[in-house]
């Protein structure tokens, strides 16, 4: 799958839930390409901004959209990697700020 196809598919399924792609389309395409690479590499689309173990069960929390997206977007207006953002974030009504890593350290140790 090409990043453009993935973009359209995810846009249709995520926008009705209130999750929008970052308005920087070039950045979004880089992340979507990395998701596709991770799918080819691991068999699932794990977050391109985190280190995957290659074990689907261990990485379940970082399969995109990761479980941290909901609290990240609610609190900061964007997820950890800024792929998904709120409408207000895209409109500049919420300042773009660093989103701290919510993934527990024990999940990152392989």
Structural class: mainly alpha
Bin the strand percentage: under 5%
Helix content: 40-55%
Order of helices and strands: HEHHHEHH
- The overall strand count is 2
Distance N to C terminus = 29 Å
Helix run count: 6
Describe the strand arrangement of the main beta sheet, using strand numbers. 1-2
Q: Assembly state here?
A: single chain
Largest sheet: 2 strands, antiparallel
**Mean pLDDT value:** 95
Q: Which blocks of ≥5 consecutive residues have pLDDT under 50?
A: none
Q: What sort of overall outline do the alpha carbons produce when their principal axes are compared?
A: globular
Computed Rg = 14 Å
Structure, described:
It is a single chain. The protein has 110 residues and is mainly alpha-helical. Helices cover 45% and strands 4% of the residues. The chain is built from six helices and two strands; from the N terminus they run H-E-H-H-H-E-H-H. A two-stranded antiparallel ribbon has the order 1-2. It is globular, with a radius of gyration of 14 Å. The N and C termini lie far apart (29 Å). The model has no long low-confidence stretch (mean pLDDT 95).
């Amino acid at each position: 799958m090409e990043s453009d196809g993935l973009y359209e598919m995810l846009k249709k399924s995520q926008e009705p839930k209130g999750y929008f792609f970052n308005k920087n389309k070039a950045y979004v395409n880089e992340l979507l390409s990395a998701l596709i690479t991770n799918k080819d590499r691991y068999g699932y689309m794990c977050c391109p901004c985190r280190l995957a173990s290659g074990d689907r069960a261990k990485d379940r929390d970082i399969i995109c959209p990761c479980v941290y997206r909901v609290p990240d977007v609610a609190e900061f207006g964007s997820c950890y990697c800024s792929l998904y953002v709120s409408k207000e974030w895209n409109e500049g009504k919420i300042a773009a700020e660093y989103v701290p890593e919510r993934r527990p350290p024990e999940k990152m140790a392989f």
